Amino acid sequence: MKIFLIVFIAVLLALLLTFLIIKYKIKKALGPSYDSFAKALKDIPNMVKEDYSSIKSIGGMTNMIKPKIIKDFKDFNINNLFNTVEKDITKYLNVIEKKDISLVDKDLIYLKTEIQDIIDNYNENNLYEKFSDLNFHKHSLRNYTKSNGTATIQVASSISYYYDTNKKDENHYNDVKKGTKYITEYIYVYDETLFKEHEVNFALHCPNCGAPISSLNSDCGYCGIEIKPINMKCWKLNKIYEIK
Questions:
Q1: What is the pLDDT along the chain (244 residues), one digit of tens a residue?
Q2: Runs of H (alpha helix) within the chain
Q3: Whole-angstrom Cα distance, residue 88 to residue 49?
Q4: What contacts 44, CB < 8 A, 6 or more positions away?
Q5: In Å, what is the CA distance from 132 to each residue of 51, 52, 103, 116, 241?
Q6: Directed axis angle between helix 2-30 and helix 34-53, to 10°?
Q7: b/e 55-66 (16+ beta carbons within 10 angstroms → b)
Q8: Residue from 197, 225, 195 nearest 209 by CA
């Protein structure tokens, strides 16, 4: 036991000596700059916290994309879209926080399966996320595409909120807001005759129950509602995710 203690103390002394030697060499190499270097090291935790709470900038091509959308959709209103984005993100975070799938309404119906998976995972592992005092700072059009009778718009949003969680991989501070970015994607089936299963970058879902459907002009195999093309003649939220 005494031998083990002696070896342990010797190792600690060796590590301390190595640290002092390294510190001396760094101080000698940096000269007058050493104090600034040491201060910078001490300030790292504060810098990390400041970055955490800073309002995040978002890239985008709104000025380029907006005219293209208006050309295809004469009644497109970008302010209405951004208002919808704020409403949908707020609803999404509320459902995740409360872990209540019954709060999924027609605006989130395409995300119902994804949200259910998140809630199941959180319940199984006793996890939670809380979002409060949500603020939206800026939105920007990120992408616009048309393919197989569908149009897709991506929006980048800079937001902040007080965040709390027990997820071990999430760094957070309870006394400052978290600044972050979200991407939302909206789809519109403008020509159902061009829609081809497995040739689009999203899955169609029943606008009533959220179950996946294989084609238009058919009945939902789960709730039985008739899927009419008119059901798809509006922008529907298809994706939402945070950029970390």
A1: 566 666 566 666 666 556 556 655 555 565 665 555 555 556 556 788 888 999 999 987 999 999 999 999 888 999 999 999 999 999 999 999 999 999 999 899 889 889 999 999 999 999 999 999 999 999 999 999 988 778 899 999 999 999 999 998 888 898 999 999 999 999 887 665 555 544 444 456 666 676 666 555 566 767 766 655 444 457 889 999 999 8
A2: 2-30, 34-53, 62-72, 78-98, 112-124
A3: 28
A4: none
A5: 19, 16, 17, 22, 18
A6: 100
A7: ebebebeeeebe
A8: 225
Q: How many residues does the chain have?
A: 244
Q: Which two tokens stand for residue 117?
A: 């998976």
Model-level pTM? 0.71
Rounded Cα distance between 115 and 126, Å, is 16
Token pair for 153: 């718009």
